[in-house]
Amino acid sequence: MGIWIGKNRKARRSYGFDEVSLVPGDLTINPNDVNTSCEIGGIKFEVPIMASSMDGVVDVDFAIAMGKLGGVAVLHLEGIATRYDDPKKVIEKIITCDSNESTKAIQDVYSEPIKRELITKRIKEIKAADVPAIASCNPQIAGEFGPIARDAGCDIFIIQSTVISTRHESSEYEALDLTKFCKDMKIPVLLGNCVDYDVALNIMRTGCQGIFVGIGPGTACTSRGVLGIGVPQITATCDCAAARDEYHEESGRYVPIIADGGMATGGDICKAFAAGADSVMLGNAFARAEEAPGKGYHWGMAMPHPSLPRGTRIKVGTAGSLEEILYGPARLDDGTQNLVGALATSMGNLGVRNIRQMQKVNIIVAPSIQTEGKVYQAAQRVGMKK
Fold it and tell me: Given the DSSP bridges, would you call strands 297-298 and 314-315 parallel, antiparallel or unpaired?
C-alpha cells in the first residue's frame, strides 16, 4: 500500500474533506422524516454535533444554551472558568489585546492555578439548568480532576489531548492507566485524540465509551505546522470507523467515534458522517455564535502551553445566534448555518434514514468538487468561495 516518495520509502495517500464527494442513489427521503440524533455514553442527543472545549467557544452559559437546543457542549476543566471567579472579565483581556501580544497574553492568563472548588461549582451550575454536564481535561491531571467532576454531577467525562495512546512513557510522572480510570469513574469516559486504526482499536479496549478522531485540523490549531503530525480527516475517520466496527464484532460493544475538527460547513459535516463518524466536534462554527464567550474570537486548547504553544488567536466574527447556526434560518450563503438542516437534507438526498445508514453511503474521490462550475462564486467571493 502507498506510493514511493523516495528510495526504499513509501507513503500512503490520504484524503480531506475537499477531495471527496457523496453520491446519491436510487432513493430519496423527505428530510423531515430522517433521524439525525446520536447516542453517546448512553445519552441520546437530538443534535449529533459537539461544541469544542475551547474557552472562546464554551463557558457555562454556552453549555446550558447548547444543552437546551439538544446538543453537546464540552467545558474545559483547565480553562479560564476553573481558574477565575469572573471568567468573562478575563476573556475580555484576551479578545481586546493587540494581535502581536495575544500569545503572551493568553499564556499569562493561563498561568493562574486551577481551583478545585471552581470545577465543582461550574459542573453544578450546568446541572442546575437541567442539561447534561460534559467536561474534559488532559491525561496528566485526569486522575485528580475526573473524580471531582464526577462527584459534582458530571454526566460524561472526556480525556483529550493532542495525541492519546494506551502506551505512554515518562520519566517525570506516572502515566495514567486508562483502563483502570474508565472502570473507576463509574460514568461514561471518552478518549482522544487519535487518527490510526490500531491506536483506535487499543483505545476502545480500555472500556471507554467514545473516541475522538483528529490531530491538528482545527482552524486555530497549529500542531501540524509546529509538530508536523496529523492525518486528513476523511482518511482518519474511515480508519477509526473500521476499528470501531472491528471492535464491535470482537466484543459486541459499540464505541462511537467523534470526528473532531476541520469542518467549516454543513457539507463537511455530512462527509464526516459518511466517512463513519457517529458525531462531530466543531469549534470555529460555534465561536461565531452570539452566545460564544469569545465574541467572535477563539484560540486552540494547546495555545496556552508555556513554552511551545500550538495554536493562535483567530477572529471569526459573530454570524448569528446558536439556534440559527444549528437550526436556521440561515442568513449566510456559505453553509455555516442551519447545520442540522443541512445534515437532514443531505441524508434525505442520499436516501438514508439515520446516522448509521449515512456511514455507508457511496463516497468518490473528487478533486474538482470545490471548483467545478464555481467561476463566478470565486470571482465574486460568495457562497463556497468566500
Answer: antiparallel
In 206-245, which positions are buried (b, 16+ CB within 10 angstroms) versus exposed (e)?
Answer: bbbbbbbbbbbbbbbbbbeebeeebbbbbbbbbbbbebbe
Nearest-angstrom CA–CA distance, 147 and 211:
20
pLDDT, tens digit (0-9, with 9 covering 90-100), for 63-92: 999 999 999 999 999 999 999 999 999 999
Identify residue 233 by its one-letter amino acid code: Q
DSSP bridge pairs for 283: none
CA separation for the pair 284, 336 (Å, rounded): 10
**AA identity, residue 230:** G
Strand 3-6 versus strand 9-11 pairing type: antiparallel
Rounded Cα distance between 252 and 255, Å, is 10
CB contact set of 174 (below 8 Å; sequence gap of 6+): none
Q: Which domain holds residue 328?
A: 3-385
Instruction: Give me 319's grid cell.
Output: 454570524
**Tally of domains in the chain:** 1
Q: What is the DSSP letter of 293?
A: T
Amino acid of residue 91: I
pLDDT, tens digit (0-9, with 9 covering 90-100), for 273-310:
999 999 999 999 999 999 999 999 988 776 566 666 66
Cell (9 digits) for 171: 520519566
- DSSP letter for each residue of 8-45: TEEE-----GGGEEEE--S----GGG----EEETTEEE
Tell me what percent of the chain is helix, strand and coil, each rounded to the nearest 5: 40, 15, 45
Three-state secondary-structure class, residue 304: coil
> How far apart are the C-alpha atoms of 6 and 109, rounded to whole Å?
46
Strand, coil or helix: what is 249? helix
Residue 370 cell numbers, joined: 470545490
Report the first-to-last Cα separation within the chain, whole angstroms: 37
Q: Read off the CATH number of the domain in which 305 is found.
A: 3.20.20.70
One-letter amino acid at 50 equals: M
What angle (nearest 5°) sits at the alpha carbon of residue 315, between those of residues 305 and 380? 140
Element (H, E) at 162: none
331 CB contacts (<8 Å, ≥6 apart)? Answer: 319, 320, 324, 337
Greatest distance between any 2 Cα atoms in the chain = 62
| Model confidence, pTM | 0.93
Catalytic residues: 221, 310
| Distance in angstroms (rounded) separating the CA atoms of residues 90 and 106 | 10
